[in-house]
Each structure stands twice: as structure tokens, then as C-alpha cells.
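Worked example

This section walks through a single chain of length 91. The input is the sequence exactly as stored; nothing has been trimmed or padded.
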Amino acid sequence: MAVWRTEGWVQVAETAQSYEAELIALRLREAGMDARVVDQTFRQEPLPSVRSFAVVRVLVPEDKEEQARAVLSERVDLPEDAETVSKDDEQ
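Given that input, the structure is written out below as C-alpha cells.
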């Protein structure tokens, strides 16, 4: 992945969905870092799912890049009281 940089901020994650980027940013904020979500999704119907039109980036300050990548590389288990959803529950 090419690293995207802008005005003192660096990309540490990229997704196609804004909710995924928001969850990543929340995890970084929980670790004490400032994080921004930049939604560069092009929305016009009908448009097939094309990666170049669906880019949501998570940015952190440049001096926090290494720390952010370390946080995101750590495994996080679900809480013990978390409920799982089966395919039968979704219908």
C-alpha cells in the first residue's frame, strides 16, 4: 500500500466503507492518538463497486505513525459478553 500523506498527517489504514474507518479511528483514539477519517468515496448511482471510487482513509499525525501501526497490528478479542450473530439471525 502506498502511504498517503497530507499536511503533517499520514495514512495508516484504508477501507472501502466509512464505518470500518470510523471503528479503526476509535481504536486509535482509545489508545490516546488523534485520528481523522477522510472519506473520498464517489457516490453516484448506478456505479459498480470500483476501488478507485470507494476510498476511506484513516490518518494520524506523522509522529504517531509507528505507534498507530503497532496498535492496529495487535489482536483484540471480543468482550466476554459480546453476542455473535449467525446467518439465521440476519434473515
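What to look for: The helical segments are 18-30, 65-73, 87-90.
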